[in-house]
């Protein structure tokens, strides 16, 4: 069977080795004679798996001991509201930095849950000559008493990534759904990190929350119990039945990352993949990137054809060449190649060769 390279932004491709292992033990996990989907989440075998998953994630990200690791429902959008409900209280205010579609969605959700006066937002993207560039203001000059600052370091839709560490007088909350474990970060710089699983961790339906213990002392708003971080901590992320199969696959991805050299090794490969694709785009008159070089996402490479009338043909021929899910998000158009940790460099090489051939023929 020929190899298909899946460039979908999410749900995204999973490591082939992980999928093969899941396939081999789908009907008989851990010698139990049943699938991991069929056993109790409170069984000693499942608990052992979840404990190892947390150990591996803590090691991969060097998570300090004063942080809790939660495996939760709801994906990234679920955490938009959970963050507000867990930390804002009746009188709290929060500041959101807007760098693209997902950070704007977080603002929109926050405003549904509280008065607009309590949610401030700053658009940090400048568009000059059709090029998007991130400009972060001096946050220390803002004289406001915010509970937290929220931002999204990598915008999946727009192909924009923020690599600089923010200097903030308030606790920083980061939506790392599309770049978690793609490069090394200092977790201690953040009050909370959350990530929907379906890009760099596992299948959809699961989200990872890494929260500093002092944040749980802030007053909360009324909310559903399954999205309450304090209850999740008390019950080991099992206040109710968790998404067990997604948790199992996430655990397998963490194990795969460890044997693959960890986050440092993955970061080097990711930079090599992104450089290969961006260098080709920059060398061609047929394709273009609309993101400034300093803010080009390593995970989600957005690009455009000079003649957009060829878009449909490009996508058709790419699919025929086993290069799938390259269509850009409907809000921005163009193309998007999502090259998360699981994408091997051979997939990017195949894409570049196809793009070269398509440009020559058209």
From TrEMBL:
This is Phosphoserine aminotransferase. HAMAP family: SerC_aminotrans_5. Signal peptide: none annotated. The lineage of its organism: Bacteria, Pseudomonadati, Pseudomonadota, Gammaproteobacteria, Alteromonadales. Catalyzes the reversible conversion of 3-phosphohydroxypyruvate to phosphoserine and of 3-hydroxy-2-oxo-4-phosphonooxybutanoate to phosphohydroxythreonine. GO terms for molecular function: O-phospho-L-serine:2-oxoglutarate aminotransferase activity; pyridoxal phosphate binding. It catalyses: 4-(phosphooxy)-L-threonine + 2-oxoglutarate = (R)-3-hydroxy-2-oxo-4-phosphooxybutanoate + L-glutamate; O-phospho-L-serine + 2-oxoglutarate = 3-phosphooxypyruvate + L-glutamate. GO terms for cellular component: cytoplasm. It is an enzyme of class 2 (transferase). Keywords: Amino-acid biosynthesis, Aminotransferase, Cytoplasm, Pyridoxal phosphate, Pyridoxine biosynthesis, Serine biosynthesis, Transferase. L-glutamate binds at residue 42. Pathway: Amino-acid biosynthesis; L-serine biosynthesis; L-serine from 3-phospho-D-glycerate: step 2/3; Cofactor biosynthesis; pyridoxine 5'-phosphate biosynthesis; pyridoxine 5'-phosphate from D-erythrose 4-phosphate: step 3/5. Its main location: cytoplasm. InterPro entries: Aminotrans_V_dom (IPR000192), Pser_aminoTfrase (IPR022278), PyrdxlP-dep_Trfase (IPR015424), PyrdxlP-dep_Trfase_major (IPR015421), PyrdxlP-dep_Trfase_small (IPR015422). Its EC number is 2.6.1.52. It holds the Pfam family Aminotran_5. Belongs to the class-V pyridoxal-phosphate-dependent aminotransferase family. SerC subfamily.
């Amino acid at each position: 069977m020929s190899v298909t390279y899946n460039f979908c932004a999410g749900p995204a491709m999973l490591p082939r080795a992980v999928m093969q292992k899941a396939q081999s033990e789908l009907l008989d996990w851990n010698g139990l004679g049943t699938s991991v989907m069929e056993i109790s989440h409170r069984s000693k075998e499942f608990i052992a798996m979840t404990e190892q998953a947390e150990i591996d994630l803590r090691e991969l990200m060097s998570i300090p001991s004063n942080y809790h690791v939660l495996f939760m429902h709801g994906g990234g959008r679920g955490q938009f509201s959970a963050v507000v409900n867990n930390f804002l209280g009746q009188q709290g205010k929060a500041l959101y930095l807007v760098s693209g579609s997902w950070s704007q969605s977080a603002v929109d959700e926050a405003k549904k849950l509280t008065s607009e006066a309590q949610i401030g937002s700053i658009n940090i993207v400048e568009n000059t000559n059709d090029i998007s560039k991130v400009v972060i203001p001096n946050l220390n000059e803002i004289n406001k008493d915010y509970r937290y600052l929220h931002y999204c370091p990598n915008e999946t839709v727009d192909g924009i990534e923020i690599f600089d560490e923010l200097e903030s007088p308030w606790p920083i909350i980061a939506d790392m759904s599309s770049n978690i474990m793609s490069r090394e970060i200092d977790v201690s710089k953040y009050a909370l990190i959350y990530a929907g699983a379906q890009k760099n961790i596992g299948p959809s339906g699961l989200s990872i929350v890494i929260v500093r213990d002092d944040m749980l002392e802030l007053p909360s708003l009324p909310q559903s119990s399954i999205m309450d971080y304090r209850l999740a901590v008390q019950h080991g992320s099992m206040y109710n039945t968790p998404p067990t199969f997604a948790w199992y696959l996430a655990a397998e991805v963490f194990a795969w990352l460890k044997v693959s050299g960890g986050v440092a090794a993955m970061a080097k490969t990711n930079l090599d993949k992104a450089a290969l694709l961006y260098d080709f785009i920059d060398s061609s008159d047929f394709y273009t990137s609309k993101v400034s070089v300093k803010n080009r996402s390593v995970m989600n490479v957005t690009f455009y054809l000079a003649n957009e009338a060829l878009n449909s043909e490009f996508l058709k021929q790419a699919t025929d060449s086993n290069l799938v899910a390259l269509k850009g998000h409907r809000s921005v158009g163009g193309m998007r190649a999502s090259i998360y940790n699981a994408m091997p460099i051979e997939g990017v090489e195949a894409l570049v060769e196809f793009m070269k051939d398509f440009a020559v023929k058209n």
